[in-house]
Amino acid sequence: MEFSALQIATLLGGTIEGDQNVLVSNYSKIEEGKPGTLSFLANPKYENYIYETNASIVLVNNDFKPSKPIKSTLIRVPNAYLALATLLQFAEKHKPRKTGIDKTAKIERSAKIGKNVYIGPFVYIGENVVIEDGVQIYSHSSVNDFAKVGADTKIYNSVVIYHECVVGKNCIIHANTVIGSDGFGFAKNPDGSYFKMPQNGNVVIEDNVEIGAGTTIDRGSMGSTILRKGVKIDNQIQIAHNVEIGENSAMAACSGIAGSTKVGKDCIIAGMVGISGHIQIADNTTIGAFSGVSKSITQPGQIYQGAVAIPIMKNKRSFAVYRNLPDLSKTVYELEKQIKELKEALNKWVNNLP
Is 225 exposed, middle or buried (0-12, 13-18, 19+ CB in 10 A)? Predict the structure, then answer.
């Protein structure tokens, strides 16, 4: 499909600088821009490319001030990155949707299947499962007994949703994710062997949640593991039993949260973060990459970082000291030597007193 600059600006509520009739049919990076494509400039680091790009239309922030002539048509918007996301979502919604049930799918008779669904090859739908309208389930996935999937949710290939788990509306679950596997619960016998604690809870995923590929979300041992509305989870993440993640929090790849921890709303957890169990993370907390959080964060709106996570400014000051340790060590040795010499001189002076 082709769109004019005028149509795009109208959709985004933006203003045009250049040819309002220029057409685009695809997207491109600003450094690789081609005629007939739309690009964007949100990060000032890439400004030099806007003067060279061949993209026909470029989205820019309202406050962008060019220092050279630009041959592309500009559309000014409050937030170029958000505007691009809006366009991409608009285009995604207008792609043809798959519907129908593949003949190789296995659906138990007690399952309830809504309208306009897609159930792909070799999908399994268990007893008393509810699949609401517009759901898409791709090949080799399984939704097990008494589970529920809300309207317009998309489940990609080889996803497993265990029994009694609940997935809300407009969610996206990427390939090879497992929802509702047993939590890591074992009691130790007197002889040192382990006795498995049955995991009788479930997972509840509210509306508009996205979960990346290869992620595992354990069911509650009792009660539920809960992802609140709007949560975004990246690839290859582990969320343990009875964890709760608040609304609109986001978590980057290869991070993990141990059991029964409560993460507040609007939090950002960067990649490779480890969070201990049975603690609380306050609303609007940011945790930097490679951090380890072992204690509750009780004050909202803080940024933490470090192998033992501490407030970020304290971490930076600590790292500045760490970086200078070789010089500091040399200074300490020199001071020790001088103190020793001073002591020896003082002792000689004292011994020579009449």
Answer: buried
Query: What is the pTM assigned to this prediction?
Result: 0.82
Res. 354 pLDDT band, cuts 50 70 90: low
Active site residues per annotation: 241
CB of 253 within 8 A of CB of 238? no
Cα 39 from chain centroid?
24
Q: How many CB atoms lie within 10 A of CB 127?
A: 13
Q: Across residues 4-17, what is the average pLDDT?
A: 96
Q: Look at residue 74 and give its three-state secondary structure.
A: strand
pLDDT digits (tens, 9 = 90+) for 147-162: 999 999 999 999 999 9
* CA 92 vs CA 3, 222, 235, 268, 317: distances in Å: 14, 39, 21, 26, 46
Q: Which two tokens stand for residue 105?
A: 């799918």
- Give residues with Cβ within 8 angstroms of 249, minimum separation 6: 228, 231, 232, 263, 264, 265, 266, 267, 268, 269
Count the Cβ atoms, other than its own, within 10 Å of residue 70. Answer: 18
193 and 211 in contact (C-beta within 8 Å)?
Answer: no
Residue 86: other Cβ atoms inside 10 A: 17
Q: Are 38 and 59 in contact (CB under 8 A)?
A: yes
Residue pointed to by tokens 């907390």: 285
